[in-house]
Amino acid sequence: MRIGCDVDGVLAEFVPAYVRVLEDVAGHAAILSSPFPLVWDFEELAGFTPVNVKDAWTVITQSDRFWRDLTAIPGIWDAIKHMDLARLTHALDTTFITDRMGLAAKWQTEVWLMKRGATCPTVLLTGDKAAACRLLNLDVYIDDCLSNANAVMGDVRLRHTNTRVYLVDAPDNRRSLAKMHDQQYLVTADERDPALVVVKDVMSMLKMEGI
User: Fold this and answer.
1) Least crowded by CB within 10 Å, which of 30, 67, 128, 152?
2) How far is CA 134 from the centre of its chain?
3) What pLDDT digit, counting tens, does each position of 71-107 carry?
4) How far apart (Å, rounded) are the C-alpha atoms in residues 193 and 149?
5) Which residues make Cβ contacts (< 8 Å) with residue 202, sequence separation at least 6?
6) How far apart are CA 209 and CA 163, in angstroms?
7) C-beta separation of 11 from 118 below 8 A
8) Radius of gyration over alpha carbons of the chain, in Å?
């Protein structure tokens, strides 16, 4: 079985570290909702300007530690070790697919994964998750980003492939759009592809696949 697994938001806690960098470059604390974030591009709602975002990404892409210092999502150590063991017992082939950028981003990701139990992890850096799933001929793909999961599912339908797509449940992907109006969130209807399977985390996806 060939599995593709996103990293940030699925295995690693990206948002808290990103918010800390934003706060450092902006010089003020974030305005955080609970639960947070409610939308994917949350920066403006959290009180940050486009300049703050640009400066934060400059810090991130010039760092040789940001990606490898991220905290693991609770329970992920067991999931990574489980996938690693399944390489032998189930002939599982896992590719970690991420859109990370910056100084030695691939190496930082590999180090992060190895420290959490992955043996010689295969890491692919790309923002085109649908193309990656197609070229790798994946049986399963898991992501926390609604647009990525929808894009992969759309490619599956277009090309009549058999990739099963899982979406990690999170506040920012439960709804596709939210706007501030009189300090209230007005939210549109859910726009998930109906074929997406929503799961709590990677381990729950592995259990559904019988791994």
Assistant:
1) 128
2) 18
3) 999 999 999 999 999 988 888 999 999 999 999 999 9
4) 8
5) 5, 10, 11, 76, 79, 80, 83, 142, 168
6) 12
7) no
8) 17
